[in-house]
Design brief:
This protein is mainly β. It contains three helices and 20 strands. Strands 1-2-3-4-5-7-8-9-10-13-14-16-17-18-19-20 form a 16-stranded antiparallel β-barrel. A two-stranded antiparallel sheet has the order 11-12. A hairpin with a 2-residue loop joins strand 19 and strand 20. The radius of gyration is 21 Å and the shape is globular.
Length: 400
């Protein structure tokens, strides 16, 4: 595969990962995000996927969730009341090309010669238990078992003398408590979450790879993390703000299980560790604390246009071999958000500055980006009736 083709596929690769409970709301969303670094040579940072959540799929107690990218599929069939009234099951299947691709970034430099492609598939079984069924804010217990198989291959730029890790199977267990939650959308008007999590990865074998086997794949790694967040819209002013704090620790983490921070891609993962202005997954951490705040200020009477500002800072205890002198890393961003009537379309154009990012010129990195969300469910109500011929082409294109 040519380097250009590889970059295109990677741009379209990253889907939003599974929620930690069955989503009860019918959704059809198209999500797109892209960050372009203005300095240095960076791995591509982006995602594009179609997200569908279908409660009542085939039967009233079944929910089908799909996240579809051109070379990746993430799916789960949720079975409500499978074990008890408030205990549900989820059966998941995921996989595709480039799902396990690894990009080596050290001291702010992308090491394409030490990076490689990875393809993977996995199956999972999840248990979701609602602990407080009569309370307004739900408290869910989550238990998930995962079996994941990874296959690695060289890229065009991979050094021929760089030894790849062995293909392997990983068995994982994840459990946690989540009080509240947030929708899988851009800029929710209201969200609150307190959660704590554990994940253990157990590989078929540990092995050495790299230059003269200078790096290690651990046979077992353990991750512990928690998150607190609040998003709220002021009723009168319609200003929206979001504050969040995420912290994580690990035991025997390696390059494949370490926490990776960087870029501004809020739907690239269930727990995105965003740092505006940095490369995607630029920092690899054994332990970290990440805090951030964003604010949306309406600019017009109809509240179509908004000014967006964000600031995020992190204290990082780096993974061995990927250390940096400065443990504090801060990023700031500002942009213009357009929101259509009924919020069926949201587009954010953003500029970001990585205050402490290491580049050839010293510290400081610039990037620009775009985030887009198209809500097909809301669009059905807006692209409608009075003059149907005007909208027929759009309705056909989006399958409405």
């Amino acid at each position: 595969m040519t380097r250009l083709a590889r970059l295109l596929w990677l741009l379209l690769l990253i889907p939003f990962t599974a929620l930690a409970q069955i989503d009860p709301v019918k959704r059809q969303l198209f999500q797109f995000g892209y960050n372009a670094a203005l300095q240095g040579h960076a791995p591509l940072s982006g995602y594009a996927f179609y997200y569908r959540n279908d409660p009542g799929f085939l039967h009233t107690n079944l929910t089908l969730r799909l996240a579809i990218a051109p070379v990746y599929l993430d799916s789960e069939l949720g079975i409500s009341h499978a074990l008890a009234e408030y205990t549900h099951l989820g059966i998941g299947l995921a996989g595709g090309g480039f799902a396990d691709t690894y990009s080596e970034i050290r001291q702010g430099k992308f090491g394409s010669k030490e990076s490689f492609a990875g393809h993977g598939c996995e199956t999972s079984l999840s248990l979701y238990h609602l602990i407080n069924p009569h309370q307004r804010i739900p408290l869910n217990l989550v238990l998930r078992g995962i079996v994941h198989h990874s296959l690695y291959s060289r890229e065009d730029d991979t050094d021929p003398t760089f030894e790849l890790p062995h293909d392997r199977t990983t068995a994982s267990v994840r459990t946690g408590l989540r009080w509240g939650g947030q929708e899988p959308i851009l800029f929710p008007s209201l969200a609150m979450e307190l959660s704590a999590w554990y994940r253990g990865d157990f590989r078929t074998d540990g092995d050495d790879y790299g230059y003269d086997n200078d790096r290690r794949v651990e046979s077992a790694s353990h991750l512990f993390w928690g998150q607190a967040l609040l998003a709220y819209t002021l009723p009168e002013l319609k200003h929206n703000f979001r504050v969040s704090l995420t912290a994580g620790a690990s035991v025997d983490a390696d390059r494949f299980s370490a926490y990776r921070l960087g870029a501004l891609l809020p739907l690239a993962a269930e727990f995105p560790l965003s740092l505006p202005g940095y490369y995607f997954e630029e920092l690899s951490a054994e332990r970290f604390v990440l805090g951030g705040m964003s604010y949306l200020l309406p600019l017009d009477r109809k509240q179509r246009w908004h000014l967006n500002t964000q600031v995020t800072t992190a204290y990082v205890d780096y993974l061995d071999g990927l250390e940096q002198r400065n443990r504090w890393n801060t990023g700031v961003a500002g942009g213009i958000l357009y929101r259509s009537r009924e919020d069926f379309l949201k587009i954010l154009f953003v500029y970001a500055y990585g205050v402490d990012a290491i580049r050839d010129e010293g510290r400081g990195a610039h990037s620009v980006g775009i985030l887009l969300q198209f809500d097909l469910e809301r669009a059905q109500d807006v692209l409608n009736p009075a003059y149907p011929n005007r909208w027929r082409g759009w309705r056909g294109f989006f399958g409405l």
